[in-house]
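Hello Y.,

Per our agreement to keep a running log of every chain we model this quarter, I'm adding this entry. I've kept the format consistent with earlier entries: sequence first, then predicted structure.
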Amino acid sequence: MAIALKTRYITVEEFKQYFGVDIESKLNTGESDNLSNSAISFIMRVEDRMDAWLNSNYFQNVEVNYPQFSEYQKRHYKLALLEQTMYILRNGDLSTDSGYDPEAGVIASINTLKELSISPTAKDHLLQCGLLSRHIGRRGVGNANWWL
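Predicted structure for the entry above:
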């Protein structure tokens, strides 16, 4: 199964404009001849994992709801993804970490890893977007349209 390399919410250029950092140079491991594809696939994974995290923890299907988001919500969702992308570049992908620290001989709990896997700043933007709620109200699950 071939996956088309195309981001849905943020671009390599938006990341560069927002942080002043060239993600392609950060990802340069010498393993790929096409750094642009590496950067795009990296951002795609961040988008997919954020969507999966929101859906499994907060019952929010962003892919379905995004077209109905206000400009304010779209902005904060993009900012959450940008912050999460930088967080992973700085700290590694903790969502796939085993929790084992060979230097300390310690295994972090799954709850600790889950808590650390999403950037605190990204969570703030997701809250502003209205996506961090498990409340079931008159408009269904969540409060993505809380101001309507």
